[in-house]
Design brief:
- Pfam families: MFS_2.
- It is found in: Cell membrane.
- It is a multi-pass membrane protein.
- The chain is mostly helical and about 475 residues long.
- It folds into 2 domains: about 220 residues, Up-down Bundle (Growth Hormone, Chain: A), CATH 1.20.1250.20; about 250 residues, Growth Hormone, Chain: A.
- The protein is globular.
- It contains 16 helices and no strands.
Length: about 475
């Protein structure tokens, strides 16, 4: 460990924060081309039924949830780390197969439907496997970069900013590149995917070269990580468990909203072109929110800012449900909701490193990999369900494609895009408000306790027992 500076006050350079943000920018360039356009490629170029695409998505996401856990086991099993650190080598090397598979998913073929489906499923699962190695290492690296809670909030904001710009660039840039290949749409998809994946790869390498692991800590010799220990890492760590539950709600709400808004603009507002403007303004509001996160956290603390973001999100959705019947009001209230999501999504990542330190304080064993991948497991399950459920929901409200919808279906669409996400946001707020106890004061105490424990080389169990009454979480 670096003892030259107090770990709670050490400041990171702007250059290093920017490099860390480039990591999520690059990973989102490779991820979002699949999230946004792969289903359309399956249906339009491979001739696969849309239902098959939904099943592929569900299967692959559940598979990826478990590969995340395996990544955690691998990270916590590392004993011999060189100058590159514990996490950075995975960012460097795993990004290459991620870029290759992301591009390969957009290669057209003339095989049978069964073979096309099998190939698509295997490629999507391979992408998930390598993406887990790259992205989980990227996220789990934060506690090794800094112990300063303010700097962690800054890194989370830069990360969310990079992710938002990556999503925005994929939204506005992919199809224009694809459409350049008139008469050869399959080639257009492949070239666009290659371009975005290559840019994403170089961004990951930029992140690798620009960040530094200052606090590399390995698990003790007798500690043997395993998938079950990743689950235990969640249930034996109350702040992490609460964060997982809240995050499952917020991620599902966000994904359902994104999936339904195309139907809402087309059938309720009768303006499908509004979607592109919606994307531009909503991403702009998210970026503004991300820029405000560090200052807001410094003034109010992470938990209050998180709850404030959820309140803005819920309020925007409620206003939209009752009064968002025109394009102008829909965009206005949606911007309010998306502005709130910026604080929530940024702090989701900033709170995880704090739970790593809590787990070390409570058990005496530091397991960044298990904690982080246990957390991402809940995110992947949420994403799998949120990617599959809108289709079932649309069926339940009587949606029929490309016809004028009944009043019952229109009401159902309004409920799906506003009331469901709003309800989930309120559940997340209640969960965090009543059960998340790891505030700034307790966190500072825990870091001081861990540091003192290591200096004195004391047994973790003894120290925890002596101080358990002082901090109850």
């Amino acid at each position: 460990m670096n003892h030259n500076h107090d770990p709670l006050t050490l400041k990171l350079s702007l250059r290093e924060k920017f490099a860390y943000g480039m990591g999520d920018f690059g990973s989102n360039l490779m991820l979002c081309i699949g999230t946004l356009y792969l289903l359309k490629f399956y249906t339009d170029e491979l001739g696969m039924p849309a239902f098959y695409g939904g099943i592929i998505f569900l299967v692959a996401k559940f598979f990826t949830a478990f590969t995340d856990m395996l990544t955690g086991v691998l990270l916590d099993s590392r004993r011999n780390t060189g100058t590159a650190g514990k996490f950075r080598p995975f960012i460097l090397y795993a990004s290459v197969p991620v870029a290759l598979v992301a591009t390969a998913q957009f290669m057209a073929n003339d095989f049978s439907l069964t073979m096309k489906t099998a190939i698509a499923t295997v490629l999507f699962m391979m992408f998930g496997l390598f993406y887990s190695l790259m992205n989980c290492s990227y996220g789990a690296m934060v506690p090794a970069i800094t112990k300063n809670p303010q700097e962690r909030a800054h890194l989370a904001a830069w990360r969310q900013g990079g992710a938002t710009v990556g999503l925005l660039l994929c939204t506005v840039g992919f199809m224009p590149v694809q459409s350049l290949f008139v008469g050869r749409p399959s080639l257009g998809y492949l070239v666009a995917a290659l371009l975005f994946a290559t840019c994403g790869l170089f961004c990951m390498w930029w992140c690798y070269s620009g960040v530094k692991e200052r606090y590399v800590e390995l698990a003790p010799e007798g500690h043997k990580p395993g998938i079950m220990k990743s689950f235990y890492a969640i249930f034996r760590n109350p702040p992490l468990l609460v964060l997982c539950i809240a995050n499952l709600c917020t991620l599902a709400a966000f994904n359902i909203k994104l999936a339904i808004q195309v139907y809402y603009t087309q059938y309720v507002l009768n303006d499908i072109h509004l979607l592109s403007w919606m994307g531009f303004f909503s991403m702009g509001c998210i970026l503004v929110g991300v820029l405000l996160v560090p200052g807001a956290v410094k003034r109010f603390g992470k938990k209050k800012v998180y709850l404030g973001g959820l309140a803005l999100w819920a309020l925007g959705d409620i206003l939209n449900f009752f009064w968002g019947s025109s394009s102008l009001l829909f965009i206005t209230f949606s911007c309010m909701a998306f502005f709130g999501t910026a604080f929530v999504n940024s702090l989701n990542w900033a709170l995880v490193p704090d739970t790593v330190d809590y787990g070390e304080w409570k058990t005496g064993i530091r397991t960044e990999g298990s904690v982080y991948t246990g957390y991402t497991f809940s995110r992947k399950i949420s994403a799998a369900l949120a990617g599959f459920l809108p289709g079932i929901m649309l069926t339940q409200i009587g949606y029929v494609p490309n016809v004028e919808q009944s009043s019952t279906t229109l009401l159902g669409l309004r409920q799906l895009i506003f009331l469901w996400p709003c309800s989930l946001a309120i559940i997340a707020a209640l969960t965090m408000g009543f059960f998340y106890k790891l505030n700034e004061q307790r966190f500072a105490f825990i870091i001081e306790e861990i540091t003192h424990r290591k200096k004195q080389n004391m047994a973790p169990e003894v120290k925890t027992e002596n101080k358990e009454s002082a901090v109850t979480l």
